[in-house]
Design goal:
mainly alpha; 149 residues; 3 helices; binds zinc ion
């Protein structure tokens, strides 16, 4: 049940329509060479759902990853507060800042992929009968402009 849930499929970079196949070419978010970790299939390997719905489709993910970054920083601040506490008498705020920056950089590939998965999932609905139904063809497609922004 959990396995085809919305959250599970987004966190695992699954296609939002069929929730079975991963939308990225690499399973590994840390294959950083040539930005391989961000390369996506043009269409879902299982159900044929296009992954780029219009020119510049993923432009808006900048806001999503910003929001995720803020959410992460707030959580890490609160966690640090509970675990170690903050004081103006010492450097604890700087320790947290360093910790937060380093861990943020470390999880950045995951956040960037998650942003795209979230973004696509807001535009493409889950279809339990994806094996029978054909995916909707995106309307605003300029073939020669794809991936060109
Ligand atoms: Zn699919």
């Amino acid at each position: 049940m959990i396995k085809d849930g919305y959250l599970w499929s987004v966190l695992n970079n699954k296609c939002p329509r069929c929730r079975t196949s991963i939308i990225f070419k690499s399973k590994n978010a840390y294959s950083l060479k040539n930005n391989h970790f961000m390369k996506m299939h043009d269409a879902c390997q299982m159900c044929g759902q296009k992954t780029e719905l219009e020119v510049g489709f993923y432009y808006g993910t900048g806001y999503v990853s910003y929001a995720l970054t803020v959410a992460y920083s707030v959580s890490s601040f609160v966690a640090w507060w509970i675990l170690f506490g903050f004081s103006i008498q010492d450097n604890s705020i700087f320790y947290w800042l360093a910790f937060n920056s380093i861990t943020l950089i470390a999880i950045m590939p995951l956040l960037m992929r998650l942003s795209r998965s979230l973004w696509l999932s807001w535009f493409v609905k889950y279809d339990p009968d994806w094996r029978q139904n054909k995916p909707k063809e995106p309307e605003r497609i300029v073939e020669e402009q794809m991936g060109n922004w």
